[in-house]
Amino acid sequence: MTLSEQQRTELAWIYLRHVVEGSRRDVLDLLWPDGWELRRMNQTPGDAIRVAGMILRRDKALPESLLNATAHRYDFDPRATQERSKRMGMRLLASDSEEWPTEFTDAFVRMMGTGADKDAGVRGQAEAPFAVWVRGEASLAELVKHSITMVGTRAATRYGRAVAYQFSTELSMQGYTMVSGGADGIDKQAHMAALEAGSHTVAVMACGADVSYPAKNRELFNRMVNSGSLIIGEYAPGTSAARHRFLTRNRLAAALGKGTVMVEAPVRSGAINTMNWAESMLKPTLAVPGPVDTAASQGTLLRIQEGRAQMAITSQDILDAVEPLGRQLELDVCTSGGSETNRGEGRGPEGGFGQRGIGPKLSWQETAVFDAAGIENDDSGSLTKIQRDTGLDGVLVMKLVRDLETMGLLRRKADRWVKVRD
Q1: Cα-atom radius of gyration of the chain, to the nearest Å?
Q2: What's the domain range around 161?
Q3: CA-based angle 332:335:340, to the nearest 5?
Q4: What region does 352 belong to: left with phi over 0, alpha with psi -120 to 50, or beta?
Q5: Is the confidence at residue 41, as pLDDT, over 70?
Q6: Across-strand partners of 417?
Q7: Which CATH number fits the domain that encloses residue 289?
Q8: What is the average pLDDT value for the chain, to the nearest integer?
């Protein structure tokens, strides 16, 4: 039977997701020779078929470290995993999928150059993911468009469980998806509260997305999938949980949320590790204060004392911290003679502002780039000038102008980007 290009590509991604543990910079460089960080901007799919073939045949052109890392896994037939995943209601998302969350690229772009991979406070693989397994029918990109990551100790106190449940309920009712790790304690409260509120939640696993870990949460995981929520992870179906995989998966949980909230955690814990990732990704980090005489609150209190986390006393504190990066500064854009309006309460077209719902909503970064773009009859709008005017990273500017072009708001004119006027 001759396979189509699409079928071969799917099998190649499944193969890579099995033989490569987590993610690796050398694999990203092979998949995207021009730079993995440009993958969303230029929408170039990674060359999975070529890279999978090189690993399978033990190509001497591969880095020796990659050959060694895959030495005991390379002889693998992905077809059985493909069938198993279909039976389990799972699918593999590669980074060129429409369901791929933009933050799985953007968060790691922001982290570049921070030294996070060398920081003892951020242990685990620091590279961006290239594919994830998803269990459930919802769109991952849509679910995490407005999301908050909540973390904390498994050995939560009654106080910690109550706060986690209350905050998660209130955030869910505000339309946020709760992201957590599927564990007992604080994680479980975040997931359960979201479900009880009729909202969605995402569990990021340190094992295969089909593996119930811990086993006592099997019913919770099934309920999540059956109610439109998702279970995701980098690891192949059937992969068991391991200590190093928890540290590696924490970077994904931190990347998905608009901010990360730590409810209870001792000084040394996986929750602290997730906070470190969020901090490296330049995302808001918040911590809930607790009793000074309990071990479960020492990590949160220390973060607040060091000024590395904002204090969260109410769920509104969390919303105030994350909404400048989310919906509070989303703007309705009208391309008909238009600029933007602050979520629909602007003037009419004669005043240069759009009406609610006329155009797409932009984040503050997209709005800054749109405002800095040129017009037909001037000489502004070069990438260099946009970067200077906005203060944004050059790679991020390149990505955003392409996104705005896709929305029909900007177009390229020689070496400039200009606003589209209908």
Answers
A1: 22
A2: 132-325
A3: 35
A4: left
A5: no
A6: 412
A7: 3.40.50.450
A8: 86
**Residues 6+ away with beta carbon under 8 Å from 309:** 262, 275, 285, 286, 287, 300, 303
Predicted pLDDT of residue 290: 96
Work out whether the CA dihedral 109, 110, 114, 115 comes out positive or negative.
Answer: negative
Starting at the earlier edge strand, list the strands of the sheet with 340-341: 340-341, 331-333, 361-362
How far is 108 from 121, CA to CA, in rounded Å? 16
Domain boundary among 325, 360, 395: 325
178 lies in the same domain as 74: no
pTM for this model (two decimals): 0.77
Q: Are residues 397 and 377 in the same domain?
A: yes
Does 205 or 329 have the greater pLDDT score? 205
Query: Per-residue pLDDT averaged across 2-12, rounded?
Result: 90
Q: Give the tens place of pLDDT for each residue, 248-269.
A: 999 999 999 999 999 999 998 8
What is the percent of the chain with per-residue pLDDT over 70, rounded to a whole number? 86
Could you give the dihedral angle defined by the CA atoms of residues 146, 129, 113 and 26, in that order, rounded to the nearest 10 degrees?
A: -170
